[in-house]
Structure formats: structure tokens, C-alpha cells
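Hi W.,

Here's what went into the run:
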Amino acid sequence: MVEGVISLVQSLVNGLLTGGIYAMVGIGLSLVFGVMRVINFAHGEFLALGMYLTLWLFRATGLDPFLAIPIVVLAGGALGWVTNRVLVGPMASGPEKGYILMTVGIGLVISNGLLLGFGAHPQSIYTSYSTATFQLAGVSFSLPLTLSFAITVVVIAALYGMLNRTELGRAIRATAQNPAAAELQGIDTQRVRNAVFAIGVALASLAGVLLLPVLYVIPTVGSVFTRKAFVVTVLGGMGNVLGAIGGGLLLGVAESLGATYLSSGYRDAFGLIAFLLVLLLRPAGLFGRSQA
Amino acid sequence: MESRLRSLLSIGVILLLIGLYPAAFPRHLNLGISIVLFGALALAWDIVGGWAGQLSLGHAAFIGLGAYVMTLLLLNTGLAPWWGFLVALATAVGIALIWGWITFRLRGPYFTLSTIAVAEILRLVAVNWRQVTGGAQGLFIYDMPPFLGLDLFDRWVEFYLALGLLAIALLIVWWLSWSRFGYALQAIREDEDAAMAMGINPTRYKLAAFAISGGLTAAGGVLYAIFLSFFEPYGVLEMELSIELALMAIIGGTGTLYGPLLGAVLLEGAGDWLRITLGEANLLVYGLLMILIIRFAPTGVMGTARTLLRRQRRWLGVGAPARR
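Here's what came out:
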């Protein structure tokens, strides 16, 4: 009985810890959708890029993944800005098939570039703390995941503060609500969109760094996370940043419980059916009306 | 009326010319079959994706459905492929109607996401329902009865079967280009609310378009299974395949008679050439080409050609002024 409870709590804890990272992935996608009305089909590939950049830095210079965060996040942000400036932004005002296939193409280029650069075999890095855990009331916490969760909380809080308290945040919210009116108020909405896409890619790359110590990485890992990000944002409501947090935690817990109590290959199918149901019955997400 | 007949005539001429391909390039029959088959599949995709403007990234589900239904009936009950073909067609139309009925209440990107999810669910079923589908190992067609005395493993036979499918696809799209049904789809694509105000029931038209498209795609899936004679879920049900179909139509030009076919020629031809010359880097180059074309020629080859032609006419001072 007690063992059963502990294993339940254990899988809840594991789910919440990974769910935090999922939330960060989902927030990036949701923010971009809220402001640009663009679903970024390459979102997971940017995450994969973050993972491989961290891997490369670790191999080349021995830089610890957690210390590599500033470099990877800045590189991701710059890449996001340029990508939107040159490729995605000009498509965003056209019909949706244009930008959807544009982002699909970007994803294809990234994953195949990674394949050429790093090979198809699964890779991982081993740090002294990769498998380290600490115990709390009989439940064990993975050290890297807990640290990642803490970083996620800080980053999400900072993002939330930025959106609500700074000039850039105000401009982002204004652009999301009404681009034409925002422009009339003197907001350079093109710059705002670039900034938002940069933030989205930076968040994806950060999630990549945080996942590297606990995950094997292969060049196609991106598409897995693109799908996870879709699920998170649909659960939370497209464009709803706070909802994405709930969606991420929910997905993390559902996956963890599923892994403990359902061992069949249909696990992903249940997730997709839930995804479809929410999309059909509650298009604004589980947590209310959609807003940026 | 006259232009309608003229385009029918042009379809006949083009099919005739393609029909000469096996005699002209007997050593490149595989490439020819791929081009013709994917031309038909891209046209089928375009009925929903281009004419009705509902971007589906789940059409691989229909290819897989056609392939699996026909092959499983053949392997388990010995049902001949042409009867299996009819069963697959009926199943695909039925599934398209149910699938569309559920998801067509969603618009724009939401609809696209739902198509991905449905196709992915079908793929997971094919991978996991091992007793029936053979799971990830796939299915192998080792024997087929002759069709009207013709060997279905013969590449020449497969080529002309694919050509027949292409003919049907072209005729359907030709019909779309002048029929009331086609105009209704275009009205829905341009503005669904306005179409509704004009008395068009968008859901019914979209459903019909999806059923036609799905049935045609499943028919292509049956031929694809015969052509491959060995397939697995990752080959016939993956999202990459759905993307490829959409890409062909978009690169050639959506909502046009020959655009998707042209896209299939370009992509299959380029894909083949890239695979041979670049080896492992081919998908990278493929992706780069995709980005460049979508960025700089978003209306596809047909649309770009039309714009250039119009501009040239204006320079020369002949032809009607551009309609704006």
C-alpha cells in the first residue's frame, strides 16, 4: 500500500519536473502564435539545435551544459530573429499554407543539417551529476531535472514579468491584440514580431540545454518535441501563455503516469486522442479564453 | 465552353505524351511510375488543399489505408487486388466522411493540426496492432493473381495503371475548373463566411471534396503498395509523405489543372537526381529548395509563369490589361 503511494508520488514528481520543461517549450510556440498567428512547425527542431550546440560545446571545450545556457540562449535568440526577419515574417501575412510549409522546410533543413554534422546515432553527454538524485520523504528527485525545473520557473517568471511590466512586453501584448492599432501607437510591429520569434526560439534552445543531461539526442528528436509543443499549446489554448504552463505540466504528468501504469505502444495514441478532443470541444484550451 | 473543350483536349494530348514514356525511357520506368503516381496523388491532395483551401498534412493516412486494406485482404483472404481496390476505395471514402465530419468544424491552422493528429493515430495503430498489420516490420506482397491476363508485378502494367489514375485525377480537377461544385469550393477557400452568406453549405462541400480526395488518394495507395510490393508504416503513413504531397501541389501551383502534376515531375525528378548526386545530403538540399521556392515563388510555377506572362504581354502592349 505504502509502496503504491510512493510510486504514485514518484511518478507525479517525475512528471511535474519534465512537465516544467514541456511548459517552456510550449510557451515559446504559444507566444509566437499569439502575436503572429503563425504555428511554428520547426519549433522542436530549434530545440534539437540547442541540444546539439550544447553537446558540441561540451565535447569541444568541456563546458558544463548549465554554464552553456547563456551562449546557447543568445545564439538561439539571434537565430530566431534572423529566421523571422528573412524567412518567416514575410510569409506571415499571406495564406497559412505559405508559412506552414516555410516552417516545415526550416525544420527539414535543421534536422538534416544535424544528421550530416553529427550522424544518426544517439548521443549523450555524461556529467558527474547526470544520474545524481536526492531523497525527500522517500521520493527521489533527479538532480539535473530539479535544477532544470528551478531554472524553468525563474525563466517563466521573468518572461511573465517582462510581458506585463516592460515597454517591450506592452508592445508585444498590443501587437497580439490588434497589430494595426499597435502600429498607429508608434509600435514597430515588425520588430516586435522578430523579437517574439527570437524569444520563442531562445526558449526552445534553453529547453534543449536542460534536456541534454537526461536525454539521448538524435537528429530527428525535434519532430517529437514539435508534436509535444502542439499538444501543450492546444491543451493550454493557442496563444495563451499561462495556459501553456498548465498544458506542459499536464502533459508531463500524463506521460509519466502512462509510463508507469500503461506499458502499451498505444500511449502516444491516447495523447493524440486527448489532443483532438480538446481541439474539437475546447478550442480555447482547458483553461478558458485565449489571450496572449 | 470553348476553353473547357480546349483544356479537355490538352489533357488528352498530355496523357498521350506521357503514355509514350515507357517506350522512350524503358530503363527509367521506376522514376516514370513515381512521377505519374505522385502526380495523381498531388492532384488528389489539391482538391482539398488547393481548390477548397483546407491545408491537410494528414493525407498519408489515405495512402496507408489503401495500401493496408488491399494488401491485408490479399494476404489473409486471397481477395484479388482489384476487388481489394474497391474495398479500399469505399473504406477511404467512409473514413474521409467521418474524419471530415469531426474535424471540419475547425478552421485554418486548427484544421491542419487535427489532420496531423488523425494521421498519426492511424500510423500508431498500424505500428502497434501487430497481429493484423504486421507492425513495424511491414507487409510483403509475394504473389498477385494476373489482372485481365496482365502481370501486376510488371513495371509496364504498373505504369499504365498509374497513368489511368492520373487521367481520372485530371478529369476530376478539369470538372472542378468549370463546375458549380468547383466554384463553391473556391468561394469557401476565399471567404468561408461570405460563401455561407451566398447559400453555400461549407461543411457539405468540404466533406464532398475530402471524400473525393481521400478516395483518390487511397486508390493511389493501392497502386503504391503494388509498386513497392513491400511497405511498412514508416514509408506509407508518415507525415513526411503528407508534406511531400502538399509540397508538390504548392510548388507546381495549387488550384490549377497542371500545377500539382508539374510539382510531381519537379520534386520526384529532383528528388531522384539529388539522391544520386548528393547521397546523404539530399534531404538538406531538398529542404533548402523548398524554403527558397516558398519564399520567392509562393504561387508556384504555374502562378509565377502566369504573372510573368501577363507582365510580358503588358510590355508588348498586346492582350487584355491585367484585371485588378
